[in-house]
């Protein structure tokens, strides 16, 4: 919970109930209350709920995820497989790990904190906290190995991912204030099937894969261009580029290096904005 009776969770946790059903929150003392949706940000896989009345609880404080380093001890809290109040521990295995989750066409992108703390189905939306009890992330996804014995659903193999608290806090404040969250875009459709290195703008000349008068067009980019660097950092694929874009704010100006055929070019691009 955050101050004011708001509850932060993953969008994918409440998605089905939001479309056809009701959402209930169970507190630590077993009290169950109905919750209302304040806002959802599918692009960040975050949602904010509100409980009008409920038991008095002390909200967890957000920590500074930018200060987190590899090797820091962390604690994951959640209800894996319905086992309420489960606590697991581990360390931060990596920071700024580009992660895309969700079905094709409805993915959420974020620069994740990676941890080896056991995270399983049911942990989603729960906090990842530091040794001082401050929230440094929201547990969101795992990489796993499925098997026939688990019905195709695998468990923790020490590869868990959390949305960093600084990004969470930014999105949450937008959702509370306006009910929606804004994110930066370049105004071009990327080719997720491109097998090479870099992020290719889909299509060929004359195809409608670049927004007219949008950021990419105004920066001189064309369909078929392959973006290889973003603000001085190498781009290996479309997921990595989208995560990098969303770490910036709409209106920021960034440096782009791209290939057009065999020719390498550079340009500056002013990021546009979009909302869920």
TrEMBL record:
Keywords: Hydrolase, Protease. SUPFAM superfamilies: PDZ domain-like, Trypsin-like serine proteases. One of its GO terms (biological process) is proteolysis. Residues 208-260 form the PDZ domain. It comes from the Bacteria. The keyword Disulfide bond does not apply. PROSITE patterns: PDZ. GO terms for molecular function: serine-type endopeptidase activity. This is S1-C subfamily serine protease.
């Amino acid at each position: 919970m955050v101050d004011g009776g708001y509850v932060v969770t993953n969008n994918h946790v409440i998605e089905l109930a939001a479309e056809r059903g009701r959402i209930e929150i169970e507190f630590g003392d077993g009290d169950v209350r109905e919750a209302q949706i304040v806002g959802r940000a599918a692009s960040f896989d975050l949602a904010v709920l509100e409980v009008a009345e409920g038991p008095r609880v002390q909200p967890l404080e957000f920590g500074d995820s930018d200060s987190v380093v590899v090797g820091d001890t962390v604690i994951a809290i959640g209800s894996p497989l319905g086992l309420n109040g489960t606590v697991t521990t581990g360390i931060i295995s990596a920071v700024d790990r580009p992660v895309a989750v969700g079905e094709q066409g409805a993915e959420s992108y974020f620069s994740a904190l990676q941890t080896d703390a056991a995270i399983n189905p049911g942990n989603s939306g729960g906090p990842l906290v530091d040794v001082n009890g401050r929230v440094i992330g929201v547990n969101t996804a795992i990489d796993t190995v499925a098997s026939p014995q688990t019905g195709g659903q695998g468990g923790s193999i020490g590869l868990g991912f959390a949305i960093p608290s600084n990004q969470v806090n930014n999105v949450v404040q937008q959702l509370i204030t306006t009910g929606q969250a804004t994110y930066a875009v370049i105004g071009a459709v990327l080719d997720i099937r491109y097998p090479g290195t870099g992020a290719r703008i889909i299509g060929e000349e004359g195809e409608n894969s670049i927004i007219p008068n949008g950021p990419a067009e105004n920066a001189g980019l064309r369909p078929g261009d392959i973006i290889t660097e973003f603000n001085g950092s190498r781009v290996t694929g479309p997921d990595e580029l989208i995560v990098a874009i969303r770490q910036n704010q709409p209106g920021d100006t960034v440096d782009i290096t791209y290939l057009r055929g065999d020719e390498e070019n550079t340009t500056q691009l002013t990021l546009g904005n979009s909302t869920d």
